[in-house]
């Protein structure tokens, strides 16, 4: 998802809708009649900005646990009444969680970072920890009242994807679509990789619709992460 974040941040004087992925994602939301996006791991709002610039007009709930990033998120959403920022981590259950804050902000994670990640992106090394409230996808969608069959769930949580999906058990079989960051090799200690995440989503009745390249090792060119978009089977 960091590729999307960079595109949103660098889109100065360039229409982001020239990006084929943006066009395809917006067209998918239109076709599935998606009216709400749950943006899990929002950082400072890059993904929601990406969606707005690509033409999505529905509700967006952006969840970000890191205080500094959340403050920027609140400012980004201030003029948009359909964009709802929340200072929250999402996971398997409600409570409190310790978040490792990275030097580049968007690589922050609940999980310990492995050397493979730090070697590929030295600026991502952790600089501190913060405590943050944690909820679940099931509870948050219930609070906002959005119907799962009209909701896209986006997950960008740096290795914590499996845990977020464990907190979405009630709504996952009904969600219109899921966009999730997938790791091809371990980058965070204890994380589940692409195969496990894909199998879980397929078992919930979703099918892989698109893959967008993401984080690569600049020294070797090896792709380390990508985004997978999964849609309800038969949609």
Automatic annotation (TrEMBL):
<feature type="domain" description="Methyltransferase FkbM">
    <location>
        <begin position="39"/>
        <end position="205"/>
    </location>
</feature>
<dbReference type="InterPro" id="IPR029063">
    <property type="entry name" value="SAM-dependent_MTases_sf"/>
</dbReference>
<dbReference type="InterPro" id="IPR053188">
    <property type="entry name" value="FkbM_Methyltransferase"/>
</dbReference>
<dbReference type="Pfam" id="PF05050">
    <property type="entry name" value="Methyltransf_21"/>
</dbReference>
<dbReference type="GO" id="GO:0008171">
    <property type="term" value="F:O-methyltransferase activity"/>
</dbReference>
<dbReference type="InterPro" id="IPR006342">
    <property type="entry name" value="FkbM_mtfrase"/>
</dbReference>
<protein>
    <recommendedName>
        <fullName>Methyltransferase FkbM domain-containing protein</fullName>
    </recommendedName>
</protein>
């Amino acid at each position: 998802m960091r590729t999307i974040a960079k595109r949103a941040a660098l889109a100065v004087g360039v229409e982001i809708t020239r990006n084929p992925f943006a066009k395809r994602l917006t067209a998918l939301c239109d076709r599935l009649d998606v009216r709400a996006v749950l943006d899990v791991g929002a950082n400072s709002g890059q993904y929601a900005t990406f969606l707005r610039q690509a033409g999505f007009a529905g509700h967006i709930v952006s969840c970000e646990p890191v205080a500094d990033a959340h403050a920027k998120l609140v400012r980004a959403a201030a003029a948009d009444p359909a964009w709802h920022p929340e200072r929250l981590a999402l996971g398997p259950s409600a409570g409190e969680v310790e978040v490792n804050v990275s030097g580049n902000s968007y690589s922050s994670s609940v999980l310990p970072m492995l050397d493979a990640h730090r070697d590929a992106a030295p600026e991502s090394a952790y600089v501190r920890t913060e405590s943050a409230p944690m909820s679940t996808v099931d509870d948050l969608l219930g609070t906002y009242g959005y119907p799962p069959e009209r909701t896209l769930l986006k997950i960008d949580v740096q290795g914590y994807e499996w845990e977020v999906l464990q907190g979405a058990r009630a709504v996952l079989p009904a969600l219109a679509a899921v966009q999730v960051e997938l790791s091809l090799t371990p980058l965070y200690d204890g994380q589940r990789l692409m195969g496990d995440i894909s199998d879980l989503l397929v078992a919930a009745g979703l099918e892989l619709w698109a893959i967008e390249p993401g984080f690569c090792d600049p020294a070797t060119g090896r792709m380390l992460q990508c985004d997978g978009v999964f849609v309800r089977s038969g949609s």
